[in-house]
Amino acid sequence: MEALLSRYRNLTVLLVVVIAQLLYLAYQVRSNRDERLIRVWAVSAVTPMAGVVEAVRRNTIGFLEDYFILLDVREQNRKLKAENDRLRMENIYYRNQLATAEHARALVLFQQQSPSKTVAARVIGNSTVGTAKAVFIDRGSTSGVKKGMAVVTPEGIVGKVIATYPLVSQVLLVTDPTFKVGVESQRGHVHGVLDCGSGACVVEQIQNEDKVDPGEWFFTSGEDRIFPRGFPVGTVISAQPGQGMKDVKLNLSGAPAGAEEVLVILQGVHQQIPEAAPVETSAPVTLPPPPPEDTASGSSIPQPQTQADKIREKYEDLGKQQNHVYGEYGSNVPNFNLKPAASSSSSTTGSSAPPAANPAKLAVPGILGAPRSWQSSSASAPPKAATPSGPVLPLGAPRHQPSDQP
Amino acid sequence: MNEVSDHVVITRRSKESWFSRFQVVALAGITLVAIVGKFYLPRLIPNTEWLELPLLLTVYFGLMRRSQIAALFFGAFVGLAEDLLAPVNIPIGMYGITKTLVGYFSASVSLRFNVENAAVRLVLCFFFYGFHAFVYWIMRRALLSQMVPFDPQETLVHGALNAVIAVPLFAFLDRMRLSGAV
Questions:
Q1: What is the ipTM of this complex?
Q2: Between A53 and B112, residue with greater pLDDT
Q3: Cα separation, A245 vs A95, whole angstroms
């Protein structure tokens, strides 16, 4: 026997070590309890550095991002020098508006609006098991976090707490193969079980007869006793009849693996399934719509702003009255000394009085750079402005009076 | 005369011995860094969950040490350390058993092949990654009744990536070994 053992010493040691671990494993499974103390020691030894590592990571990434953003701003500034100041100010204003849509702010907003009592946490580390989807968050039992609590973001569900330590907790993500979530559709209130084990997320236990449409939202049903009812889960990508059960594929609205800030639900409150689709809380803040146009003017046609525009419209009206087509060869030459009809020119002046009632206003062409206020105030009008009463001629027209014509 | 020659032989052995005290401490430190790194690395560099540095170190230890017993104990140590940081729904010992087997078999392979060759190391690391993933999957299904999917395509790709990483990593560890032995 001794000779046999000494001959197969290595194999014997291997078997002893493996069997010892198997027995230890079987003891854990059979007693249905893990060796908490050992894990507490291990996690407590590793996680204190988590905050430091996370801070270094964030600062490094933040510095790099700031640096590249700064380069981008410089480049934009170089290009924007060709534009006027007003456009540049508008651009900066819009950028500031967009920058206000930070995720943390949305999280706080959601935390305030949600009836459930929550505590914000930050993801600080991953699990060592590649196939198991689990992360560590920086809130532990001292913050009131307990095993079994749901973890969410404003966009959707993230996972559940499977272990708590004094300062950190371990969260099993919904994308873990062993994790199931009770869900309910928005329109038909069809109940199912969410399973993301096979890579893509599917909703199981839905009968072929149940009506589920692509694009429809699924919410937590509360039946799993983890997530309170009414939290958004995701939208249906495809729903096809399968063998016995319907094949419903779901697109998770939250990003469990990529979430950096999460909320742990300390006290869940069940809610109703909302009728409307959930609002995208992380969407960028948009400016309010422009004020409504003044409909009192009764016309959507843009009003002419300059004297040149007014003169141009006057000549167009005169041409129309005399059936003259500008730019057409052989067309009769219109008489520009005639007064245009009141109906057609009423829109050109922008005033309530017809132009015929105030011919001096219409006849005097504006001068570039000259103040325009004098037209509306006769008292302050310069003396020279009232004098021209002669006809306004187009460029290139003969400069003689009608009385001089033969 | 005999005493002097014995002293020379002992000194040479101690210099040539790979498993000197310095390297034990260094390798243990590197292994701990690898295990903790597996905890932190996906946070620092996204999409690096496939990187199995503890496994690569176990394979390297087995290949270089050429002692099955030492390699299996090293594998058990690394695996159990990983189990401690694993999700609590996975009992302690799953990675321990898997890496014990990896350590033992890698040491067994080193007795038959020239493991200094980079191509052999590449193939061995690829093989042991697949072996490790498959055994772990079998154990989760058989022992824990957890219906975890096994994606062969993903395993092959990750195995290839780990093998590519392993070659320069092993070369670096070789240099450290040589410098530590002098």
A1: 0.75
A2: B112
A3: 49
Angle, in degrees to the nearest 10, between helices B53-65 and B21-44:
160
Give the count of Cβ contacts less than 8 A between chain A and B.
136
Select the highest-mean-pLDDT range: A151-160, A345-354, B83-92, B156-165. B156-165
Q: Which residues in chain A have their CB less than 8 angstroms from residue B69's CB? A: 9-10, 13
Nearest-angstrom CA–CA distance, B90 and A43: 15
A265 at the B interface (CB within 8 A)? no
CA A82, A84, A90, A94: dihedral to nearest 10 degrees?
0
Report whether B121 contacts B115 (CB < 8 A): yes
Q: What is the pLDDT of residues A368-397, one digit of tens each?
A: 443 444 444 343 444 444 444 444 444 444
**A128 → closest Cβ in B35, B43, B76:** B35
Using a CB–CB cutoff of 8 Å, tell me whether A170 touches chain B.
Answer: yes
User: At a CB cut-off of 8 Å and minimum separation 6, what does A263 contact?
Assistant: A107, A110, A111, A114, A118, A119, A120, A121, A151, A152, A153, A154
Cβ contact B82–A28 (<8 Å): no
**A51-110 residues touching B, CB cutoff 8 A:** 53-54, 57
Q: Tell me which residue in B36, B136, B147 faces A46 most closely, judged by beta carbons.
A: B36
Reply yes or no on whether the pLDDT at A125 is more than 50: yes
Residue A87, pLDDT score = 64
pLDDT in tens, A137-157: 988 888 889 988 999 888 889
Amino acid (1-letter code) at residue A394: P
**Interface contact A178-B146, CB threshold 8 A:** yes
pLDDT band at A32 (very low <50, low <70, confident <90, very high): low
Considering CB atoms only, which of B42, B72, B149 is closest to A17?
B72
Q: What is the CA radius of gyration of chain B?
A: 18
Q: What distance in Å separates the CA atoms of residue A250 and residue A253, rounded to the nearest whole number?
A: 9
Answer yes or no: do A126 and B89 touch at CB < 8 A. Answer: no
Query: What average pLDDT does the segment B80-86 reach?
Result: 87
Measured between CA atoms, the residue of chain B closest to residue A44 is B85
Please list, residue by residue across A35-50, b when 16 or more beta carbons sit within 10 angstroms of its beta carbon and e when fewer do.
beeebeebbeebbeeb
Tokens found for residue B140:
């989760």
Weakest-pLDDT range from A66-80, A89-103, A339-353, B64-78: A339-353
